[in-house]
Amino acid sequence: MSDRKELLQVRGLQTTFFTDDGEIPAVDNVDFSVREGEILGIVGESGCGKSVSALSIMGLVPSPPGKITGGQIIFDGKDLTKLSQKEMRKVRGNDVAMIFQEPMTSLNPLFTIGNQLMEAVLIHHKDWSKKQARNRAVEMMQLVGLPRAEELIKEYPHQLSGGMRQRVMIAMALVCDPKVLIADEPTTALDVTIQAQILQLMKELNKRLNTAVIMITHDLGVVAETCERVIVMYGGQVVEEGPVQLIFNDPQHPYTKGLIQSVPDMRFKKQRLYSIPGSVPKPGSIRTGCRFAARCEFVLDQCSVTNPDLYQTSPVHNTRCFLYEEKEVSLIDRAVVES
Amino acid sequence: MTEPLLKVKGLKKYFPIHRGMLGKVSGQVKAVDDVSFYVNKGETLGIVGESGCGKSTTGRMLMRLLEPTEGSIEFDGKLLSDLSKEEMRKARREIQMVFQDPYASLNPRHSIGKILEEPLIVHGIGDARERKKKVIEFLEIVGLSSYHAKRYPHQFSGGQRQRIGIARALMTNPKLIIADEPVSALDVSIQAQVLNLMQDLQKELKLTYIFIAHDLGVVRHISDRVGVMYLGKMVELADSESLYSNPLHPYSKALLSAVPVPDPNFTREQILIKGDIPSPSNPPTGCTFHTRCPFKMEICTKVVPVLTEVEKGHSVACHLYNEQGQQ
């Protein structure tokens, strides 16, 4: 898994919103990478910066008030943060595509499904004829499991159910074979049985087309079911990163531990749910020390003063918590001894 | 066994569909179609189902916020469905509701103190001093502080607002609380806090809950018994243990197997049901689930299955489990 090529690297990303209440660092020094063909989960609660990170990659941060104020997003040797609008337009769709939570608001109600799919095709293949574009649209609709594609192509978004609309969005995103697909809460607005269908489809497409997927969600169940690697975000920062097995079976950061314990499990009845005290902080309300210190039950004196680094606790597992500082040191020691 | 606090029989809600300029009724949406159940004192009945299954409509009819088209609702020995508007208003002192969206259900122009005091004024409970005292008492019970009474809804987080919503429901010392998706707008860590609070309150104040939600994990956690609804009908009703370990109705099976479980080591056979929920304005004949059911038989398209007890405390509405179907 780890020998796969890194497709996209986010380094020290800083996205700030300039509002009347001052500068709000919604994404604060975030590092991660996406590997070829993997499904990477980004999980966190509202305001943790997971969606803004995704929008930053796409160059879609609403500006003003938002702006990428630091860091790099490297894709295919290019730094996406340095590209012009025009160059970015070529990247979007061709290299990186995105689907959103609410498929109704992302589709234009005045145009047919076919019209909107063909538009996406023709923007990226300017030399194609209408017929070619239409064939491609039908082919994509079949790929995402939409029934009676030939008829559906003439219908309008309101004639489709929520699940079908999300399939159309996926078809539209994949029309130009992007290397990375960003899915921002793709199933949150859907019913459970429809959610299961869409997640199944996304897993199949990931295998078949080898498209890397960034799955942004607040639902730990969705993460466990679909992702290979997970990034946990809190207060605009990455607090833990690792393979899905380690995140669920050996969570290290107190926030990750608390989050996993607070989810009710359908398989058995827990006597009482663990609950993290306090409330989810507003973006930018905590600027010094560990962002989680105020809610943490293992808090140390230094936590409210200095923000811990993302310590490497094993070759594949990183945690932003002082409790694991020594573990990194011992890991480095071991590496020295072994060499 | 304790006496049921609430008995619902044959509850129906049909919404007319108006067409054309004269508003002629051209059809009906059967939002709730012949639903019966009971709730025992001190227990929690969970109602689950996907959007459009009629679970919220059922909840609203129990309080007569929506008038039922047909059916009887018996609460604590009284037939609610026979009460006049005025009598019903008085009866609501004992049945209160907690809503999903704590943003929309609190008046932004009223202070928390005023919001909490209002139910007491409406029901004519206590004098001004006693009411103030009670407001502060209940703020503390739900984990807020007395100084919060002077603040306004926008100054609170989502979780705190839901605590206020719960406090408001408790002000009149109700016996039954109907909670419609009370935690689905909240973050996971806050959701756990509110669920724990609701469980503590239930023990302390001997409350009975009807907990309506789409999240099957949350419903299992809080409920003693669970009813599964599909297209306006109750398709299965059982003890929560028995339903989750041994779902009988094909829809319940599919629903349970579709829920993502927060454990990457967990594997199971997923029953993916195809297609979408049919429109409730034109529901399928016979069993409404037959269009998506993997075990469809001939009888299913013709005869509506009745909710029947097949094991002790476990009822299901499916032809697979009655003799007629097995023959």
From TrEMBL, chain A:
Belongs to the ABC transporter superfamily. Its main location: membrane. The keyword rRNA processing does not apply. InterPro entries: AAA+_ATPase, ABC_Ni/Peptide_Import, ABC_transporter-like_ATP-bd, ABC_transporter-like_CS, Oligopep_ABC_C, P-loop_NTPase. Transmembrane segments: none annotated. The lineage of its organism: Bacteria, Bacillati, Bacillota, Bacilli, Bacillales. It comes from Viridibacillus soli. PANTHER family: DIPEPTIDE TRANSPORT ATP-BINDING PROTEIN DPPD (PTHR43297:SF2), OLIGOPEPTIDE TRANSPORT ATP-BINDING PROTEIN APPD (PTHR43297). It is found in: Cell membrane. Residues 8-260 form the ABC transporter domain. This is ABC transporter ATP-binding protein. Keywords: ATP-binding, Cell membrane, Membrane, Nucleotide-binding, Transport. NCBIfam families: oligo_HPY (TIGR01727). GO terms for molecular function: ATP binding. It is a peripheral membrane protein. It comes from the Bacteria. SUPFAM superfamilies: P-loop containing nucleoside triphosphate hydrolases.
Automatic annotation (TrEMBL), chain B:
Belongs to the ABC transporter superfamily. NCBIfam families: oligo_HPY, PRK11308.1. PANTHER family: D,D-DIPEPTIDE TRANSPORT ATP-BINDING PROTEIN DDPF-RELATED, TRANSPORT ATP-BINDING PROTEIN. GO terms for molecular function: ATP binding. This is Dipeptide ABC transporter ATP-binding protein. SUPFAM superfamilies: P-loop containing nucleoside triphosphate hydrolases. It holds the Pfam family ABC_tran. Residues 6-256 form the ABC transporter domain. It comes from the Bacteria. The lineage of its organism: Bacteria, Bacillati, Bacillota, Bacilli, Bacillales. PROSITE patterns: ABC_TRANSPORTER_1 (PS00211), ABC_TRANSPORTER_2 (PS50893). Keywords: ATP-binding, Nucleotide-binding, Transport. It comes from Viridibacillus soli.
